[in-house]
Amino acid sequence: MTKYTAPKFYKEAFNCPHCGAFAHMQWQSKEPGVYYQAICDHCKKDSFWRVTQINGSALNNGFMVNIGTMLYPDFGSAPLPAEDMPEDVKKDYGEAAQIFIKSPRGAAALLRLGLQKLCIHLGEEGKNINTDIRSLVEKGVFSGQVVKVADTLRITGNNAVHPGQISDEDFDRAAGKMFDLINFIVKKAITEPKELDELYQLMPENARNAAEAQDKKNSKP
User: At what angle do helices 144-161 and 104-121 cross, to 10 degrees?
Assistant: First the structure.
């Protein structure tokens, strides 16, 4: 999985909440010690921040800024959803991103729901997420690596609504990775197969027909 650096107040570089690129941020303020904007060097878009804790010692007209929270875009600290993520899954993902800081358990439950919807997009019934995951393995849609990721999402999501099975500290750490995990599943189960099919379609038609005929012949008992 690609390393993701969450946006953080006054950090020199992080993954932009607009374009997703890891980029240097230019920090500016017309009201030092109160509001700031971070301008992404890659896409030139702004994120807006409010100071939540200050230390009256040095920088910014007498204020040393310690802690701030991002006001816009209202997407929390989660990475952007994968481009090929289905729209109904993306809706749950976005809602989870908005509430994650205030409610990791609520975010985890939403991402588990997103995984269930993703399984439906991949051809499953969506009634039992564990059954769906095993079915996708049998069909070859999920590899051994992907099924571990899916199980992590499923189990963490279950613990969101049935707390007490893992410690709060471990839960929060696992919940924070769920955004990366569902993006990883979309990449492996939707994006990469689509890209491979696009490459296959670039082959001459007669060569494709010959290869498919050979595959059918080899598959006969």
Answer: 140
Six-digit token string for 8:
């953080």
Q: Which residue reads 């979309």 in tokens?
A: 186
CA distance 78 to 101: 10
Work out whether the CA dihedral 162, 114, 138, 131 comes out positive or negative.
positive
87 exposure class (CB count in 10 Å sphere: 0-12, 13-18, 19+): exposed
pLDDT in tens, 127-141: 888 899 999 989 988
Q: Is the whole model's pTM more than 0.90, yes or no?
A: no
**Pairing between β-strand 35-40 and β-strand 64-72 as defined by DSSP bridges:** unpaired
107: nearest Cα among 117, 92, 119: 92
> pLDDT confidence of 58, banded at 50, 70, 90?
very low
